User: Fold these one by one.
Assistant:
Number 1:
Amino acid sequence: MKRVDLYIKVEVELDEEETPERVAREICRQVEKIYVVRKAELSSAVARD
């Protein structure tokens, strides 16, 4: 079986009380659960106005 790294950009709008890290953790958790991936992680977060 071939291993491939996929880099996906996700743009979200957060409520004032949400943190990018918490949302990223939940997205990674869901990806790992649904797609049975070996590892999902946040590599960077860029805040925009």
Number 2:
Amino acid sequence: MTYSMQAPYNNPQYSYQMPQKPNTGAPVLGLMTVGALGGGTVGYLRNRTMISDDGKINDSFAKKVYENISKIDSNDNKTYKQCCAIADKIDKVKNKLELKKLFDKNKDGAEALFQGKKEKVEKFLETVSSDNIKATKEKIKQGINAINDMYIQSSKNIITKCWDKDLKEFVKPDKMDSRIFDAVKNTKTTQAWKKACKYGGITAIILGGAAIAYNFITQPRIR
């Protein structure tokens, strides 16, 4: 009996194919890019202006604007920084001597509490004792806060003067110093994009992580 030997034919039912590793790089990077752009866009749209539709100015924005404006006048900048230094350290003051040292280190800020009168600062210190140091510190904080509130309100007044509520953008008023207008406008831009980057980074991490998890779950296993 003769047996015919025939070469096996390619039957799709029995063909074997090596499993292909999915390309995870593109989806992950793609989602992270979308996350960065999408999150950045959302962040920018939410923070493109520090002024609400009804014209209310964000306090933190007004403070930053004042800090930039005060740099134009070195005396204003110095006084503002010293007032902030007193406010930051007053709680740690324990007695008259420490208060005097704090005032001596921040003379312009201390004098601002007393309408710029050095002699008033000296007379005030003479009245401080262990019995009234706590109440004294509270009054100093109130005074510093009042001064800073005036600085912030002054900043808001300038911002309002530069803001065109119809165009929703800053427009330089006539006779305003260009340096002051630039300080307002550039602060807005810087603050907005800083927050946009923050939102974009967070969203990129979340979407990128989701993409990695998805690829890990769906990729085939070899057993």
Number 3:
Amino acid sequence: MTLALSRWFFLLLMCLSLTGCSLPMFNMAAANEAELFAQGLDQYIASGELTTLKRLPQQYPQGEWRIKAAAIIDMVKQQRQLQAQLEKKDQQLALCQSDKDLANCKKEQDALVQDNQMLEETLKRLKEVLIDTEKRTE
């Protein structure tokens, strides 16, 4: 009787696994990972800090949210680099003395401002996609 019950339980478990269903206790790590991702995203939005998002790949190296966190971290790094370049160009613009230098510097500044705006828009879209993805997985 116990052997038959064990076989049925194993068969049921295999069917659940193959059909994509999961029992809540088996999906606890994924829920914790998604919660950590959400906390990291909230922290970044509130303060601009990435510490919680950076912890995600360390705590869940095989997790599905690790990739999303890494994408956000890369986008933020690129945005910060472009912001630093823009500030450097602003300083150079302030030092320009002749009209010709001023025109060249102004063109470079406008191009960097446009690049920065595009990155900010991309980051905004990425956040929206990640939020939509999170809502779908709930």
